[in-house]
Backbone:
């Protein structure tokens, strides 16, 4: 016998063609629907321009999730997210605009006061 033939004989017959058994476990998980309550509360308290934060807070209530209406909860969550995005964008733009108005208004008032003072001194 050759060496290769001897090793094949030692390994034994090929594995059987029987498939291994498998177990299937079905896990029912609830669909996670974000409600954006914290974001809506933040927009309501700090960036509540045009009351969008308050309206988003009304749409982000958890009533639909508690009842089990997943489709309604997803629709309300989508509306709350859209309103929160608009409230955040408008809040940031209005805050920047207010700061710019305050700075330019202060500079303008300073120059007007400086001009009035110079006219009174007779320059």
Residues:
């Amino acid at each position: 016998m050759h060496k290769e033939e001897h090793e094949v004989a030692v390994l034994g017959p090929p594995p059987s063609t029987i498939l291994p058994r498998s177990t299937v476990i079905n896990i029912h998980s609830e669909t996670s629907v974000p409600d954006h309550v914290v974001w809506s509360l933040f927009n309501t308290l700090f960036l509540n321009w045009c009351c969008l934060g308050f309206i988003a807070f009304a749409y982000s209530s958890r009533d639909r999730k508690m009842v089990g209406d997943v489709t309604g909860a997803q629709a309300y969550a989508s509306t709350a997210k859209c309103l929160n995005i608009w409230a955040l964008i408008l809040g940031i733009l209005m805050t920047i605009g207010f700061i710019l108005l305050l700075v330019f208004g202060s500079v303008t008032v300073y120059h007007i006061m400086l001009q009035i003072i110079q006219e009174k001194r007779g320059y």
Q: What stands out?
A: The longest helix spans residues 70-121.
